[in-house]
Amino acid sequence: MSTDVLTPVLTDIWDAPRSWTLATYREHQGYRALARARTMSQADLVEMVKGSGLRGRGGAGFPTGLKWSFLPAPDGGPRYLVVNADESEPGTCKDVPLMMANPHVLVEGVAITSYAIGCDHAFIYLRGEVVHVYRRLLAAVREAKEAGLLGDLEITVHAGAGAYICGEETALLDSLEGRRGQPRLKPPFPAVAGLYARPTVVNNVESIASVPGIVLGGAEWFAGIGTARSSGHGIFSLSGHVTRPGQYEAPLGITLRELLELAGGVRAGHQLKFWTPGGSSTPLLTAEHLDVPLDYEGVAGAGSMLGTRALQIFDETVSVVRAVSRWIDFYKHESCGKCTPCREGTFWLQQIMHRLEDGKGTPADLQALSDIAGNILGRSFCALGDAAATPVQSGLKYFREEFEAGCHTPARELFPPAASTLHAQEVTA
Questions:
Q1: Alpha-carbon separation of residue 19 from 12, 66, 97 (angstroms)
Q2: Which fold has domain 320-417?
Q3: Helix-helix angle 320-334:340-357, to 10 degrees
Q4: C-alpha angle 75/126/191, rounded to 5°?
């Protein structure tokens, strides 16, 4: 597989000297898209993004231009753009490096989107732990403002407190307003009553950062990349037992087999056992799914979700029970507690997974595990409950024998942790 399959658009200048600065960005066509956008009408910009087929890059895959068009007609009051940069999904690691390496492409995307929807105050809600990215975003906004590129647009970079639930758009809005981050009842949807009860567009970092390229290249150019229903390019994050982990920007519809070839394959001497197509909240897939097109329809057809394209690769040394148990620990800890299925269900999932991991489970535990996950899925207030249920259900589907083994043998004996550790020699040296 040639590297020609890659489409370096968002990642194009990551290796340029001081790629995060305004000077470097402007040397690579930076802010030309904003200048062009300002020669267009707002309606034409919205139609261009709709025509490009850009779908939300935060996981749900909702058409971006269509979301913009849901805003009601202007009534003289404010409307807002909120960029969801609260990247917290286990395994997901595309937005943080994007903002670190090239924050100005996001700032330019924010400026174009704000103009398109008639917004004069935009917010970037960032996960607070990544202080280095926070500082870089602040510097980029300051550079753009001082250069006179933003006009009257105000951009606020807000650092959240690090709650996974704030990746849910309405919980993010509550947090931004100073309240505890918990999901809101919908309707009303943010487009009608979002931040401060005003019309609001909430989009992912990569979605907004893709807008300048669409304005420069045109809707047809973007729509010509990827597949018929999943247009464009996307950053695929490969981690785990892969020879060259990292970010691979490629057309939607590429397969894991092709990406693994670009990444040097699974680590030497081992073979693929299972993987996630979109982070830990998406159902597991196995080696039989190597040729599934990584687009929204293809992955859904295989029984999973494309999500954030966080491809976590696990070889045969890994215990599925241990991996799922760690994820459940995370979801139980991050549950906001607002709804009973998630609050109580994740607690009981954790108890059972710990017993199975320790080899102290029972056949009744396996049935309870399936029943609890089934009662969470589709019944929780937001998608956090679903995120906890899906790895359990897919784990049981593809690796039930390992869960059954948890009734008599600890996972650490069946799958010694040292065998799956990537840097075991360095650790023990």
A1: 10, 32, 12
A2: de novo design (two linked rop proteins) (1.20.1440)
A3: 150
A4: 25
Q: How far apart are CA 33 and CA 48, in angstroms?
A: 13
CB 145 within 8 A of CB 22: no
Residue 313 forms beta bridges with which residues?
240, 275
Task: Collapse the DSSP code of 249 into the 3-class scheme (helix H, G, I; strand E, B; otherwise coil) and give the result.
Answer: strand
For 11-26, what is each residue's pLDDT tens digit?
A: 999 999 999 999 999 9
> Can you read off the two tokens belonging to residue 147?
């250069």
Identity of the amino acid at 26: R
Q: Which fold has domain 233-315?
A: Ubiquitin-like (UB roll) (3.10.20)
**CA separation for the pair 347, 39 (Å, rounded):** 55
Instruction: Write out pLDDT tens, residues 363-395.
Output: 999 999 999 999 999 999 999 999 999 999 999
Tell me the DSSP string of 141-182: HHHHHHTT-STT-EEEEEE----GGGGSHHHHHHHHTTS---
Residue 426 confidence class, pLDDT cut points 50, 70, 90: very low
**How is domain 3-223 classified at the architecture level of CATH?**
3-Layer(aba) Sandwich (3.40)
Residues 131 and 247: their CA atoms lie apart, in Å, by: 21
Q: What φ, ψ does residue 346 adopt, rounded to 5°?
A: -65, -30
User: For residues 344 and 372, what is the distance between their CA atoms, to the nearest angstrom?
Assistant: 10
Q: Three-state SS for 312?
A: strand
CB neighbour class for 228 (10 Å; exposed up to 12, middle 13-18, buried from 19): exposed
**Integer Cα distance of 116 and 52 in angstroms:** 15
pTM of the model: 0.94
Give ∠ CA 371-375-379 in degrees, rounded to 5: 170
Indicate the domain borders of the chain.
Answer: 3-223, 233-315, 320-417
Residue 383's nearest CA partner among 324, 338, 320, 322 is 338
3-state secondary structure of 110: helix
